Amino acid sequence: MKFEHKPHARTLAILEHRVHPGTTRDQLPHGNRYSRVNSWLAVKITQGVGSMTCAWLFCILALLGLPAALAKGGEGPVAWIAQTFLQLVLLSIIIVGTNIQSAASDKRAQDTYADAEAVLHEAMQIQAHLEEQDKALTALVTKLGAALD
Asked: pTM score, two decimals?
């Protein structure tokens, strides 16, 4: 009996380029416009805040507010930066954007699992093929041994 290779559906999809790793955009909501705009905005703000350009802008902003914070009766520079700006504005936006990016990471992990499943299936197919070859070779050796006797 000749072995017939049956590729896994995931392997075929990968070979035909119908499968791609998940991205953050894939995880954005597709429901109502309000959710889509909020998620898009959160990701964009997270990307912007997570840059050195933004870090320098925040440094300049902090320096501009420093004289007022240091003035008599002012809140002080550390309190102004930590309580007024970072805690109230950026922390919540960064968390929302990070959650969306985390969902994309989860999708990539699921894709990796599916790829591993496909590789396992292929390995099992190779094993079955080798077993068929072993049977054919054993039959040939038996025939050759009988012919030599």
From this structure: 0.52
Tell me the pLDDT tens digit for each residue of 60-100.
776 777 788 889 888 887 887 787 677 666 766 777 788 78
User: 98 is written with which tokens?
Assistant: 């990070």
Instruction: Evaluate whether 70 touches 77 at the Cβ level (below 8 Å).
Output: yes
Domain boundaries, the chain: 23-144
Of 13, 24, 41, 51, nearest in space to 108 by CA: 24
At 16-31, the pLDDT tens digits run: 877 776 666 777 787 8
Q: How many angstroms separate the CA atoms of 90 and 105, rounded?
A: 22
Report the half-sphere exposure of 36 (CA within 13 A, side-chain side): 6
Q: Which of 125, 112, 126 is nearest to 14 (CA)?
A: 112
Nearest to 77 by CA among 87, 64, 92, 88: 64
Residue type, 43: V
